[in-house]
Amino acid sequence: MTFHRIEPNEHYRDLRLTSEGGAWDLGLNAYASGMRVRMGVNNKPPKVLDFCIGQDASLFAPALTSVLKRLEPLEESVSPEEIDAVFPWAGTRPDMAIHLDSLLSVLS
User: SS3 string of the chain?
Assistant: First the structure.
């Protein structure tokens, strides 16, 4: 599954990407506690991925690139459960101090 950039909306305020077939949205939202990576069904609130990557801006691009690389082999018709399986720690409010190496390992 590949994504391209489109206009932000209320669910993806800082960066919004949509899958080529339009089924999924993925993006970034800044909060006081840090930047969040979020993903969900197109034009709906994100309910598949939603985790904080912290406040270090130098990590935003590598973290998002890692998410995109992990999603690449998946088909557009993938289920939320199949996406969750790619990020097994993401539903646990991950501590990036613990999970960052795992997330970024796809870049090496």
Answer: CCEEEECCCCCCCCEEEEECCCCEEEEEEEECCEEEEEEEECCCCCCCEEEEEECCHHHHHHHHHHHHHHHCCCCCCCCHHHHHHHCCCHHHCCCHHHHHHHHHHHHC
Give helix 60-71 / helix 96-104 axis angle, nearest 10°. Answer: 50
Provide the domain count of the chain: 1
Q: Are 38 and 30 in contact (CB under 8 A)?
A: no
pTM of the model: 0.85
Tell me the pLDDT tens digit for each residue of 73-105: 999 999 999 998 898 776 555 566 666 777 777
pLDDT in tens, 20-37: 999 999 999 999 988 999
Domain of residue 17, residue span:
3-107
